[in-house]
Amino acid sequence: MSESAAQTILLSDYTPFGWRIEKVELTFTLSPKATRVTSRLRFVPNPDAPKQVFFLHGEQLSLIRAAIDGQTVSPEITDTGLTCAVPDGPFTWESEVEIAPAENTALEGLYMSNGMYCTQCEAEGFRKITYYPDRPDVMAPFSVRVDSDLPVLLSNGNPAANGAGWAEWHDPWPKPAYLFALVAGDLVAKTGAFTTASGKKVTLNIWVRPGDQDKCDYALDALERSMKWDEDVYGREYDLDVFNIVAVDDFNMGAMENKGLNIFNSKYVLASPETATDDDFARIEAIIAHEYFHNWTGNRITCRDWFQLCLKEGLTVFRDQQFSGDMRSHPVKRIEDVLMLRARQFREDNGPLAHPVRPESYVEINNFYTATVYEKGAEVIGMLKRLVGDDGYARALDLYFQRHDGDAATIEDWLKVFEDATGRDLSQFKRWYAQPGTPRLSFTDNFNNGRYEINFKQENQNRKSFPTKQPQVIPIALGLLNPNGDEVLPTTVLEMTEATQSFAFDGLAARPIPSILRGFSAPVILDHDASADQRAFLLAHDTDPFNRWEAGRALSKDVLVRMVLRGESPDPAYLEGLAEVLRDNALDPAYRALVLRLPSEDDIAQALADQGHVPDPLAIYRAAQTLRHAIAAHLKDRLELLYADLLCPGPYSPEATDAGRRSLRLTALGLLSRLDGGARAAAHYAAADNMTDQQGALTALLAIGAGDAQVAAFYDQWQDDRLVMDKWFMLQAGLTPPDRAVRTVTALTQHPDFDWKNPNRFRSVIGAFSGNAAGFHDPSGAGYDLVADWLMKMDAVNPQTAARMSTAFETWRRYDADRQGQICEALDRIRARPGLSRDMGEMVGRMRNG
Ligand SMILES: [Zn+2]
Predict the structure, then answer these.
(1) 332, 339, 337: which is closest to 656 by C-alpha?
(2) If DSSP codes are grouped into helix, strand and coil, which group holds residue 297?
(3) Which active-site residues does the annotation give?
């Protein structure tokens, strides 16, 4: 469908569906090219809805027969569904359709992956399975029968009955169609058990292909911990007899929370010390928790329409962040979350794809599974908690579950429970859901007669496409330090509601040094022209771990910007500040590793653009290389000591303490490789007995343009393990130096193992390359052409995956006229592709015109 022909959906057009469904009965007779789906749906008129034509969604279905109350009917069929005359009162609709899962390359609806049938229905995949009101506000209990010779046949809910070649499932909890799931395959389970707080026994299964069952222990353990945590912290118990998770190799996203039958990208389930890194283990823990937590925030209480996506996603991301913090380290988790937020969401908010946390229109909802909806959505909930306090938050959540269980709810419902539970008026706070863009916060301060006054100003970026914006409620967590480093004002949350606002603190002996936005208390950009000395002071003394890290981060950004613009050498105050942090053995090694990590090249490009400069990706790459070399030279002795001391005793464990030691040790290795030409990293690679060390050493080598022998050895060792091979592709595409990045990536795309229709493999090459800033932005434009060619190829088979990766181009306006011209040409070429998808058409149109 062409972009102009695609219809824009508006939040303001919401109308309830004219019927409710009391009961859904589905039967699947599976066959790769001709699966039969029969459905029996009991409709009753919805008294709350206006009178309307009976319309069921349906796409790419062959209708075999349809009947109402047993009488054959002939509905009118279009590309998007069917309409039919129906009785005034309740009636039973029956239909039989045929679909071809083996030909479904979009991986949406019912499809096949390595001989196994599986489904992905969120957001609008169910309409490719059968005719149905495929919208989240239509909730019903489902009974499903699956007929197939395959040994394992699964669907949502509890097992009802089974025999040779068939199985029946019943899900008693009403749910929207996007939570439907079906899996059939030759699978084996790793099984566990959980007893809920009220004594219900639940069977837990993680289903994988034979041979992978020894890689499920960590996922199972993470699931049990998630179930316990949700009971302890939110009072939420699991509500079925069985909880199934299935690992699938071909999957468009991370994982999906289908009721009682989660389907996961195998990358987020399978792990062993030999094949998965510490980061992989942490991500598995977080995603298992996220999908499990959806059972209440998403499934029991779902969204009224897709504009409310942040209702389930923002809240569930917030909950999984809390969980990971509890399992690991809160400061480290907070820093990692903010790094991600800035890298993806701030970038989005600052470009042509900016949209509110609750969008007001879309063409293709798949394009709105964004960092803004997820990560900024979670930040908004964090602010709400900060404003109402922990007790207020707990009361509001209890009320939310009590009032809305079984509902398809809205952001208005969500805010109302906070207002009712705490007595606060949240009408101004609601702007966080409606206004796009990242607010900028600046301040001036003065000190007089023991009184310290600080005046804040908030401004929203003024992109021409946005309407004028109103001041937002910004919780500013502030602490004050006196000049000897003691804290004179512990963290205090100031509530800013005006465009400019002042706060005063009395009785101070000396002018304090402010520590602002502690814990990153709001998703804003703090414009702070502190001197290098002031930042170095905070890096050494701030009692808030986030702001201590932030001070180092700001220093390194300033240093890099000055190196790029004026060719200055690295600031000694910065290098000394790093040395002090490294020497402090009381600090968590994982935290120290984060302090040593430089801002990304994309961060520096944005910092330069913010200051009115045109960033040159190659100059940024060179400055970062020079700075890493200078850090290594300045800290050499300390780094060597850390490298020797941090070796983990005993066998590999993925838990946070050991992972933190490895993280700092590998950071030291990466820096030392700048001095020794990679000799130590080569030895480290040869001695590695786990993937974290193996990948860390290979990373250190590739980052200095070495590692050819290790790349070859890695391939020989791992060529039969698809998940590990994704790393082999990703490391090369992401780390090859700019002078040969395009050549290397072109060769990778010609490699026989580049199975590009697999989304993980595609992302590990094309996605990783677009993050290799200096290579992607090669002055010849060859990097843009390469990515555009592959996006066009992918768009023809899997529009969702292609459209999401098109964000590689979203920052095009920052660059020079030549690069802008090359990118626009690439975007226009994509837009002109015959048969362009609705997904890609919308993305390219927004980027080009925004
Ligand atoms: Zn989610």
Answers:
(1) 332
(2) strand
(3) 291
Distance, in Å, from the CA atom of 62 to the CA atom of 95, rounded to the nearest integer, reads 11
Cβ(373)–Cβ(341) under 8 Å?
Answer: no
Contacts of 597 by beta carbon, 8 Å cutoff, 6+ apart? 667
**Across-strand partners of 348?**
none
Dmax (CA) for the chain in angstroms is 89
Q: What's the gap in Å between 290 CA and the centre of ligand 1? A: 6
Percent of the chain exceeding pLDDT 90 equals 96
The Cα 117–Cα 144 span in angstroms is 15
Residues in contact with 789: Cβ distance below 8 Å, sequence separation at least 6, in sequence order: none
Give residue 256 CA to ligand 1 midpoint distance, Å. 7
Average pLDDT over residues 545-560: 96
Nearest to 206 by CA among 194, 215, 214, 216: 216
DSSP string computed for 468-513 = P-----EEEEEEEE-TTS-EEEEEEEEEE-SSEEEEEE---SSPPE
CA of 316 to the centre of ligand 1 (A): 6
Overall residue count recorded for the chain in this entry: 850
Preceding amide of 123 cis, omega within 30 = yes
Contacts of 418 (CB under 8 A, 6+ apart): 384, 388, 392, 396, 424, 426
CA of 310 from ligand 1 middle (Å) equals 9
DSSP secondary structure, 33-51, as one string = S-EEEEEEEEEEE-TTS--
Burial (Cβ within 10 Å: 0-12, 13-18, ≥19) of residue 796: middle
Q: In the chain, how many H helices and how many E strands?
A: 28, 31
Least confidently predicted of 97-106, 387-396, 464-473, 785-794: 464-473
Q: Is 591 helix (H, G, I), strand (E, B) or coil?
A: helix
Position 496, amino acid: M
Query: pLDDT tens-digit profile of 66-103?
Result: 999 999 999 999 999 999 999 999 999 999 999 999 99
Nearest-5° angle of CA 262, CA 267, CA 269?
A: 50
Rounded to the nearest angstrom, the distance between the alpha carbon of 229 and the centre of ligand 1 is 17
| Centre of ligand 1 from the C-alpha of residue 117, in Å | 22
CA 5, 11, 13, 15 torsion-angle sign: positive
**Measured between alpha carbons, how far is 804 from 254 in angstroms, rounded to an integer?**
13
Residue-level pLDDT at 1: 38
Identify the band that residue 460 occupies on the pLDDT scale cut at 50, 70 and 90.
confident
Q: What gap in Å lies between CA 684 and CA 597, rounded to an integer? A: 20
CA of 204 to the centre of ligand 1 (A): 20
**Residue 595 C-alpha to ligand 1 middle, in angstroms?**
30
Going from the Cα of 747 to the center of ligand 1, the distance in angstroms, rounded, reads 36
Give 533's DSSP letter. H
Say what angle helices 679-687 and 708-718 make with each other, to 10 degrees. Answer: 10
Q: Exposed, middle or buried: residue 76 (CB in 10 Å: 0-12, 13-18, 19+)?
A: exposed
Neighbour order of strands in the sheet with 500-505: 500-505, 451-460, 439-448, 525-526
pLDDT in tens, 43-61: 999 999 999 999 999 999 9
Cα 706 to the center of its chain, rounded Å: 32
824: which 2 tokens?
């626009």
Write out pLDDT tens, residues 225-265.
999 999 999 999 999 999 999 999 999 999 999 999 999 99
- Tell me the C-alpha distance between 668 and 749, whole Å: 32
| Distance of alpha carbon 333 from alpha carbon 324, whole angstroms | 7
> Which position has the token pair 């969120």?
122
Q: What backbone phi and psi angles, to 5 degrees, belong to 183? A: -135, 135
**CB-based burial label for 490 (10 Å; 0-12, 13-18, 19+):** exposed
Separation between Cα atoms, residue 443 and residue 458, nearest integer Å: 9
Contacts for 330 with CB less than 8 Å, ≥ 6 apart? none
